[in-house]
Write a structure and sequence with these properties.
By secondary structure, the protein is of the alpha+beta class. 22% of the residues lie in helices and 36% in strands.
């Protein structure tokens, strides 16, 4: 009888301790649907330009883990569910952040750092991306926002994640003797 009582007490303590840890971990997580809208840059095309279909979206958390990748639809929109750690810099908000990399055929790459997730406590996040058309006669470089990084630091990061998810370079002949930008297609 004594052994059963001790075993029951120990089981109860273990259960409540582990339940508390799971609950605490869930308080530090934020889940939302990230909607990314991709179109051409206003500076590169006319106002009536269509959205960019088939742009590859890569979402990365603050620990450098790829959370997912998807393509935009015919409206230039991609949706992806993400779960990230709570950003404790914003104590009054249950929000996190991600980095979004966007690549599309015929366009230069775009990296958006610090994209807020669940900023308005509505389990959503939105990001608009404007891609620049590749000019084969010029040096084309990825663009990035919300980051005070040296451009070469960002280029290395882009190459790392493009290779990690298995992307290929675009099939564009460049006059400037440089490699073309990354495209949305996976290696075959």
């Amino acid at each position: 009888m004594k052994k059963i009582c001790i075993a029951t007490i120990l089981s109860t303590v273990v259960f409540f301790c582990s339940a508390h840890l799971i609950f605490a971990d869930n308080l530090n997580k934020v889940t939302a649907i990230l909607t990314v809208q991709v179109g051409p840059s206003d500076d590169t095309l006319v106002e009536s330009s269509p959205p960019i279909k088939g742009a590859r979206i890569i979402v990365i958390n603050s620990f450098g883990k790829v959370l997912g990748t998807t393509l935009t639809n015919s409206n230039g929109i991609a949706k992806i569910k993400v779960t990230v750690n709570k950003d404790h810099r914003f104590q009054k908000k249950q929000m996190g952040e991600v980095t979004v990399i966007t690549v599309a055929n015929g366009y230069n790459e775009q990296i958006d750092f610090n994209v807020p997730i669940n900023e308005f406590n509505d389990n959503s996040a939105k990001e608009s991306v404007a891609l620049w058309i590749v000019d084969p006669k010029r040096r084309n470089e990825p663009r990035f926002t919300n980051g005070s990084f040296h451009r070469l630091t960002v280029f290395e990061m882009l190459d790392y994640y493009a290779k990690q998810v298995g992307l290929t370079k675009q099939n564009i002949t460049m006059d400037a003797k440089v490699e073309p930008p990354w495209g949305p297609d996976f290696k075959k």
